[in-house]
Specification:
By secondary structure, the protein is of the alpha+beta class. The chain folds into three domains: 53 residues; 97 residues, Immunoglobulin-like; 73 residues, no CATH class. The protein has three helices and 14 strands. The strands form four sheets. A five-stranded mixed beta sheet has the order 2-14-13-10-11. The protein is elongated.
Amino acid sequence: MSNRTVIWTRDALVIILSLYVVFSIAMAPWANLKPEQALPTSCETGCPPAINYPEDGYYHYKNAIVFEWSSVSVVYRFTIHNSTGHVFHDENITDATTYTTKRLPEGSYTSFVYYKGMYGSSFGDEEPLLRSEEHLLASSSKVTLVWAPIEVTYGIEIREHKTAELPQITIIHETENLTQISYEFKDFDNGKTYTWSVYATDSLGFTSESSIDRELNIDTTKFLAFELFNNWEVPFILLGILMVIALQAGVFLAREERND
């Protein structure tokens, strides 16, 4: 191979690789890299758990899928005031069952713990009272109050998406009173589309809003095509492969050029 041919071949590889880099960067949907949207902060009886896995998409069905979500926090309000009604302390407390005040002057006090609900809920002036206690302080001291926690469990719904044969969305599985934040399900039919959502229920009977439905396509014939052509990360994987090949070719051609 002549020097001129080697140089042209090497330059062509560099130009092709450079064009591919530019094209891949230009075509990548950079908007997908933005942080996840913040969860709502105001819900009637509580905001839904945040879904961790799986999100919308195609999933190759092997034995089972483990659904995962984040736990829901509960909020309490602790207040304490003296016999004249003067409020010495008023604070919201998350996921706690005890609170100790700062040192209070000598006197009589009443402490209250209200339930403000699961994260995002608002009961207005009708917050359930969980505990109250009278305190008679003979000298300046702190006050500690302990109360029973509000327990939260979770429910999950798995539905088969409507089709021409099944015009209505049908709940194929529903489970409640889950204390863990994951759930394994096995009874999928390959080639079908499912939706699922999760919600929380507290021990006072309040139920949060349900999460937005997530769609699952289980082992469909579109699975491979979807993974190859609909995921924007694929061009960068191919780019990495091409870069390795180009690097090896460049080393080889450089050696050939020196040998000539």
